[in-house]
Amino acid sequence: MALPEKVTLPSLLEKKNSGRKITMLTAYDYAIASLVDQAGIDLVLVGDSVGMVALGYSSTVSVTMDEMLHHCKAVRRAVSRALVVGDMPFMSFNCSREQTIRNAGRFLQEAGCDAVKVEGGQGSDDSEAAVRAIAGAGIPVLGHLGLTPQTAARVGGFKLQAKDAQAADQLLSAALRLEKAGCFGLVLECVPAPVAAEVTRRLKIPTIGIGAGSGCDGQVLVINDLLGLKGDFHPRFARPFAQLDRTIIKAVQQFRAEVEKGTFPSDRESYAMDPKQLALWKKKWSKKK
Ligand code: KIV
Q1: Each residue of 31-67: pLDDT tens digit?
Q2: What whole-number distance in Å separates Cα of residue 130 and Cα of residue 133?
Q3: Quick one: which of 159, 191, 210, 257 is 20 to 30 A from 273 by CA?
C-alpha cells in the first residue's frame, strides 16, 4: 500500500477538517519504531509508558529525562515518515518555566523529536502554564487530559475520568484552555465516549483518543497492548490485534528444546572451514600435543 507523504502538523489538522482519522502508536526502540513507520502510522509516541512496559517500573513516575531521551533517539533513527513525539516525564515540566523549556528543547535538539507531549492541565496542576511556555518557545506540544498516568494516584488509580456532568464540564474547559495555550492536538485518555466526542466537536485542534470512544479525530494505543505482549494491566480499550506473547514463548521454547537436543544449529546454520586449511591446522595441533 502506497504511503502518504511525510506527516506534518498542518497535515494532521487537514485530516481533522476532512474527517480522515489520525493514527498514533507508541514505540520505544529502533526495530519496532521502524515497523510502525513502515505501516504508515501518523505519529509515533515515545510514551513514558516505556517505564511500565519496557523498563519494569510499577508506574511512569520513575521515568527520567535521560531515559526518555535514550529511547527517543532510538525511535528517531528509525522513523522517516511519521511525526515523533517525546513524552515529557514526571517533574520535567512541573518545575520552573526556564527548566520546562530547557527540558522540552532537549527532546528536539538532542533526540530529534518533532514534538513533545505534556500530561495534565485540569485542576490544580501547572501543565497549562507549561504548555504555554513550551508552545511560546516554538516547540510543538501535544496535550493529554482525562486519565493522566503520572498523577493517577491522585484520582485513585487507573480509572474512567469525567464521569459526571461537572467533571465533563471541567474536562471541556481544560481542553479549550490547552488549545488556547498552544497545543497542536490533545490526547483524551479513559473518558466516556460522548464526552470525548463533544470535546472533539468543540476543538479546532485534533483529539486522539485512548479509551475515549470512536468520536475522537484519531486513536492511539500502547504498542505492547496492540501486539498482545501482555503486561500485568489489561484495560478494556486495549484491543490486542495480535497475540505475540504466545508466539514469542513458543519460539523461545522451541529454541531451548532444539539446543538441548543438539538439533540447533544444523550444518546449514554453521560455517565450514576449507578442508585443506582444517587438515593443516589439525596437524599443527596434533604435533603440539
Ligand atoms: O505514555 C503513553 O504511552 C501515553 C499514551 C497512553 C497516550 O501517554
Answers
A1: 999 999 999 999 999 999 999 999 999 999 999 999 9
A2: 5
A3: 257
CA of 45 to the centre of ligand 1 (A): 7
Pair 85, 141: CB distance under 8 Å: no
**Residue 86 near residue 140, CB atoms below 8 Å:** no
Atom of ligand 1 nearest to the CA of 49: 1
Q: What is the distance between the alpha carbons of residues 178 and 22, in angstroms, rounded to a whole number? A: 19
| Cβ(231)–Cβ(55) below 8 Å | no
E strand residue ranges, the chain:
22-26, 43-46, 83-87, 115-119, 141-146, 185-189, 207-210, 218-221
* Tens of pLDDT, residues 99-146: 999 999 999 999 999 999 999 998 778 899 999 999 999 999 999 999
Of the candidates 5, 98, 189, 269, the residue annotated as catalytic is 189
Nearest C-alpha to atom 2 of ligand 1 is from which residue?
A: 47
May I ask the CATH class of domain 9-242? alpha beta
Predicted TM-score (pTM) of this structure: 0.94
Q: Please tell me the predicted confidence (pLDDT) of residue 233.
A: 67
Quick check: is 128 catalytic? no
Closest CA to 43 of 2, 88, 84: 84
What is the residue whose three cell numbers read 507549561?
130
For the chain, the first-to-last Cα distance in angstroms comes to: 64
